[in-house]
Predict the structure.
Amino acid sequence: MRELLEQINSYYPLSEETVGAMVNICTEERFRKNELLQEAGAVARYYYFIKSGLVGYYTTDEQGDSIYKIFFEEKSFVASTAAIIKGQPSDFNIVALEDCSVIKYPVKAFRELIVQYHDLALFQISYLEKNWVVKKEPLEISLKHETAKQRYLQLLENKSLYNRLKQHHIASYLGITPTQLSRIKKEIK
């Protein structure tokens, strides 16, 4: 729980009372590589905090191919946030790309705590602002204005993530085929 609380406190510090309430709704779980944390079409019931492992967030196209939107490493919060906010089934699958250890907490219980504990609500606001507005906006602009090569070079800057991804994950994330990715890699060398 220490890692979770440290990460929450990096956004907004929680009181001891709030920490106690939060800890009471959390459980630890392990997911094996390729297991789904969240299935597309299902209602999102949990928020997850990644203690160890790598998680991918993807949808499937008409041909059945996986289209990766984003990847999450340790110390990340993961959920089908848009589905939770809209109260609708998720459009995305969340899959363990490596064996993972997570702390999960139920959406309903967490939303009740947000109403009850002002500091937890301030954490949630700060988290959403930093990760769903500030961090997400450059990614959206990148998708519209940058080439796959430019986006690949940006991904390459995050060595810890890049080295953990399979080539087909990278190609999917960039919106290109593995063959096109190979050409980009050769061109860069």
